[in-house]
Amino acid sequence: MPTKNTVDALLPVGALIGALLLFGLFVWVGGVSPVETWVLLFKGAFGDWYSWQNTLTRAAPLMLTALCVALPARAGLVIIGGEGAVVLGGLAAAAVPYVMPLPGNVIGTVLVCIAGFALGALWIALAGALRQYRGVNETISSLLLAYTAIAIFKQLVEGPMRDPATLNKPSTRTLEEAIRIGGIAGSDVHWGFIVGVVACLALGLWLALTARGFSVRVVGGNPRTAQLVGLPASALILLACALGGGCAGLAGAIEVAAVHTNANASLIAGYGYAGILVSFIARHNPIAVIPVAILFGGFGAAGSLLQRRLGLPDASVQVLQGIAFVLILASEALRGVDWKAAGERFRRSMMPREVPLNSTVKPT
Amino acid sequence: MNDILLPFTAAIVGGALRVGVPFLFVSLGECLTEKAGRINLGLEGVLVLSAMAAFGGSYLSGSPWIGVLVGSATGAALALLHGLLCSLPRVNDVATGIALMLLGTGLAFYLGKPLIQPQATQLPPLALGAWSDSPMLQAALQLNPLLPVGLLLAVLMYTGFARTRWGLLVRLAGDSASATKALGYSVNGIRIAATAAGGAIAGLGGASLTLFYPGSWNEGISSGQGLIAVALVIFARWSPLRCVGAALLFGGAGAIGPALQSIGISAGYNLFAAVPYVLTLVILVISCRPGKVAEGSPGELSSAR
């Protein structure tokens, strides 16, 4: 008999397997072999070194944007506007060379990343502050702030910060070669992946082991207790929001410095929204974010293979992610169910009634 | 002066009437859902999927009105899924909304891939500008035939909430789950029905996107109107009648940029697109107080607490 805890731990895995099965059924209805789809999904994500590089590159921003949901969530806030922090982080990173000369070495890279982190932190902390000091719901305000951020981004990239040389696709000036973030040991996977892993580990340990991290969890878990023991709730909530937003801003800065080399509309790619998915599946645990982000990076990487080999639309990965998210949320309903008692009830309901079958009850 | 003012006003009014219609339907749908005590962030998915379904329905049947029905039914189906999922214990309605947004848009792009090229039969416009001999006014007053439907719906919802047994039940479920239970009604049942009906209304908004303006199906058909429905409803303080004003205001604000461009001013084009969002945020900041729910909001709403 499996214990309650192992069943609970296996729930997301079961939901993911269910999602893969449903997705297979979905493509099968469209006349595509589900087995071939599953094989290609695996090959495209984790089949060879080329796929792995693609997967890990996509996982890097996902880890950081997931932290933008996970940390505020641990402090009791549902922030869904990470996309705004991503684009502003990227914008800040691209803006640094406009305002000051940068040393053409790793210090320049660090400065660019700090700028991204700072603006992202400020943006999400603003949503936290509005909630703490004005009572504005943070879910709604972070969403509104995200749309505002995208408008600011477009305005500046297409206006004052536009590099006149970019005709068809408005972009900012390209970062110098020396400032950009390169691949790890000659591979295509850039150092942003390591930054993401380190951020997840560090913040996971911070939440689990330090007094400050524990206080954040108390504020999120039971605000009344936090008030009773005199924790500075507002400061802790702002800290969690700023750290999370900073990570999302860092994701934007890294995407600019490692992938796009300048800020342009390709940065608005929905990493902020995908991070919500990753964080919820990881149950807002920063360390669990790492494998989940790699898995979803893998799905993203496999998308183009599905498109090329099977002629599936490029949105098929989005369908798979949607099914997975729905099933994983629905599986929450099974968490903590006493399976032994449920099995007993089921067994009893299957047993024949005590009433003799051949006795007929006459209506009175 | 008249040479500038007339085209500018015509562009704003025309834009408000054209762009405002999908806003109107999603806000009415969200209003109904929230009145019953649920929040549906997945209306973005509902909007995009129903836009695709309406276009497909019109393309395959040749009748745009069948398309409208298909769109509305599809919206109801996806919203029903949201309603059912949220009724499970320990399932977060905000997260479910994001999941359905992802699923709805994914399904729409997947199934709608073959619909990007063809042209479906469009809804016939109501030419209210026929009295004027200015072609600009005539163009601006080519009304969406779904607009009167939306206005009627707003009035019906308003009187329905105020006067009918059904409206009272929806408000009851939204304001106090325990009172609903005490009176012997199923809270979940009412909320599921309200969510599905809200999806059907939002589906009309999707239909007006692909069958009237912009009038084609592509992957960028919605610019987040579904997500912003939540903000619109707060802006309208949960009143269906005020939803009309809010939707037209948001539509008009979105039209400022293009209208300015039409008279030769292109500075700040993108910033004007953000006006509705900033406006909502400012109103929230002014009207909210810590520890107090927003005025007019249903008491059971998770976002109001």
What does this structure look like?
- The complex is a heterodimer of chains A (364) and B (305).
- Chain A is 71% helix and 0% strand.
- Chain A is an all-alpha fold and 364 residues long.
- In chain A, helix 2 (34-46) crosses helix 12 (286-310).
- Chain A has one domain (16-339): ABC transporter involved in vitamin B12 uptake, BtuC.
- Chain A starts with a helix and ends in a 14-residue tail after the last helix.
- Chain B is mostly helical and 305 residues long.
- Chain B has a single domain (2-304), classed as ABC transporter involved in vitamin B12 uptake, BtuC.
- Helices cover 70% and strands 1% of the residues of chain B.
- Chain B has 13 helices and 2 strands, in the order H-H-H-H-E-H-E-H-H-H-H-H-H-H-H.
- A two-stranded antiparallel sheet of chain B has the order 1-2.
- Chain B is globular.
- The termini of chain B are far apart.
- The relative contact order of chain B is 0.21.
- Chains A and B meet through helix 5, helix 6, helix 11 and helix 13 of A and helix 4, helix 10, helix 12 and helix 13 of B.
Query: Low-confidence parts of chain B lasting 5 or more residues at pLDDT below 50?
Result: none
- Please work out how many helical segments of chain A DSSP would assign: 14
Work out the helix count of chain B. 13
Q: What ranges of chain A have pLDDT less than 50 throughout 5 or more consecutive residues?
A: none
Entry summary:
The complex is a heterodimer of chains A (364) and B (305). Chain A has 364 residues and is an all-alpha fold. Chain A is 71% helix and 0% strand.
